[in-house]
Amino acid sequence: MNMKINKIDKNYNIYTNNNIQTKPVKSASYTSYPMILTNGLNNLALINKVMFTGQNYDIGLNRDELIKRTMPNGLLTITLLKNDSPEYTNLADGDKQALKHLIKAADAIAEVELQLDDENNIPFKKYLEKEIVKGNPDAEAAMELFKGQKGIFAKDLLFNEISLAKGLKQSPGRGVYPRDLSVEEFHSILFKMLDEGKDKEVKNILNQRSVVVRNGDYLKGIDYVDKFKKEFSIAANELEKAANVSTNEDFNKYLNLQAQALRTANPMLDAYADKKWASLQDTPLEFTITRENYEDKMTETIFRNKKLLNRLKKYGITPIAKDFLGGRVGIVNKEGTEFLKESKALMPKLAELMPFKDEYEQTISADNQAMVDVDIVDVTGAVGEYRGKITLAENLPNSDKLSLKIGGGKRNVYHKSMRDNKFKALQIYNKVLDKSQIKYITPDSNHYFTVGHENAHSLGPHHNDAKLGEYRNILEENKADVAAISFVDELTKMGVYTNAERKGILINFVMSNFLKAQPDNSIAHRVRQVMQCKYLGESGAYEIKNGKVHVNIEKVVPACKKMLKEVIRIQIDGDYDAAAEYVNKNFVWTDDMKFVADKLNAETSAYNGTLNTPLADFLRNS
């Protein structure tokens, strides 16, 4: 940009050297955009060199990038419940009071997650806050992105790696391993510790709830509860306060159990809390501490080192990737939950449709699978990270959790607020999908599929999950997707879906596997989409006709059933090499995918998103 700013008037009209008058769009997500224009835009010739330094941090994106990524068409905003919403105003007074405490508990969990995600997150955030006070508009824009992605690092919708801190790269060990620990040194230290009889210490290092630190020439695992005593204590206090005023006895019992688990480093306490949480079906409020292990790229390297893996087996040690934490606060939507209850009753029948069902034990029944639809007040930490995508639903606890071993069940939570904010499928597919098929896609098409996906997580084998290493999550997400579609015809026969709804689910599923750009293999959800897109194409489930995707509807379910059998076989066997071969064979970016990606990019210029949380903000300040 070589233009010179001659004048900016009180209405933020810009007068350039070419006498062109323009007016910037004021963004809801970047309210200070006019401030950018009044703070040094006469130096646009230096725009690519502007970096603000303080306390060893620089902002990693130049002003062009910051503006582009924080304008409304670049940073999509999802608005959650408002403080005048009937969902909130109709609550009992005790539940309104409880929400205040639950928000504060979720905020404390967010502080923990910032540290688990990267040790630089909190100091960098403080740096931005100081720069904002100084009037630095770049810091304000960077803070908007930081709040959206909830950290320094993210991959956007085009899978570009974003670092808000100049020169800082994301560590494979995130914040749960020392940043300077290489894979080679990690493995070497583990060998050394095993050689010296420190197998108990190694087990503490390789479980899902420890932060690993250096301990002289060795490593040491510190339980999350001990590592984050201050933050967990705040969260526990707030949960207990909420339990004192909330109107539902079952919910209050869970809150008190969860508070105990945050105070004492005892996995069994977590198990008791998880077991109670998973049984909650008819409560007015929702609170969850989510614990999922998709982000730890260090622990999974052990599965590529067969010699180390065999040594660990001799000591009965199974490496488990570290949990990353999120907080969810919401109000249960009764109408949406009724549909989910109907779905829940079908789980035993769906279990009978799974391939090789006699080779593993199903852990589901209508009695131990709760399902709720939730109007979201706030999502913090990992569950609220907008990193290219944001979570629409979760099925927890995951199979590595102790609560499942003591007879606990699972619970599906659906984020109604996220669904309501999504672009309608017609807007996305209008210039990509065969016009005759667009009519079948409705706002419910993706919701019905998501319900099937989350239900399928509770089905199938889980006893050998850990043996699949870095392919574990990819194949589990792949299984959930293709299982959901494999059930569609049977559910239509049962009257759950109409024939038109069936077509919408299948067409929407095929289209949802087309991405805006080619991903790498680090994001399980995106890898499985590419795998499925290739598989569906080779199975004839779609083709490109006259520049549009045409879905061959009757070929979708057979293709998914075939893929489901292949994936389940690998999961039953726990065969790491077979998993690697299968993923690498199908994770191929095809010409059709590139063609559709180009069309999707012509439809939207969004890079990422952020949350607007009016009710949560009101509760924080009241």
Task: List its salient traits.
single chain; 622 residues; alpha+beta; Fructose-1,6-Bisphosphatase, Chain A, domain 1; 3 domains; five-stranded mixed β-sheet; three-stranded antiparallel β-sheet; 27 helices; 14% strand; disordered N terminus
Provide structural commentary:
This protein has 622 residues and is an alpha+beta fold. The chain has three domains: 5-76 and 120-170, no CATH class; 80-118 and 174-418 and 606-622, Fructose-1,6-Bisphosphatase, Chain A, domain 1; 424-603, no CATH class. It is 47% helix and 14% strand. A hairpin with a 2-residue loop joins strand 4 and strand 5. The radius of gyration is 25 Å and the shape is globular. The relative contact order is 0.11. Residues 1-54 have low confidence and may be disordered.
Most strands sheet: 5 strands, mixed
Helix and strand content put the structural class at alpha+beta
Q: Which stretches are low in confidence, meaning pLDDT under 50 for 5 or more residues running? A: 1-54
Instruction: State the helicity in percent bands.
Output: 40-55%
Please provide a brief summary of the model:
The protein has 622 residues and is of the alpha+beta class.
What topology emerges from the helices and strands here?
Blueprint: E1 5-8, E2 14-16, E3 21-22, H1 33-37, E4 53-54, E5 57-58, H2 63-70, E6 75-79, H3 86-89, H4 93-117, H5 121-133, H6 137-149, E7 153-155, E8 161-163, H7 183-195, H8 199-205, E9 210-215, E10 218-223, H9 224-227, H10 229-245, H11 249-263, H12 267-278, E11 285-292, H13 306-314, E12 324-332, H14 334-345, H15 347-351, E13 369-381, E14 393-396, E15 410-415, H16 416-421, H17 425-429, H18 435-438, H19 443-457, H20 472-486, H21 488-493, H22 499-512, H23 524-538, E16 542-545, E17 548-551, H24 556-573, H25 576-586, H26 591-603, E18 608-612, H27 614-621
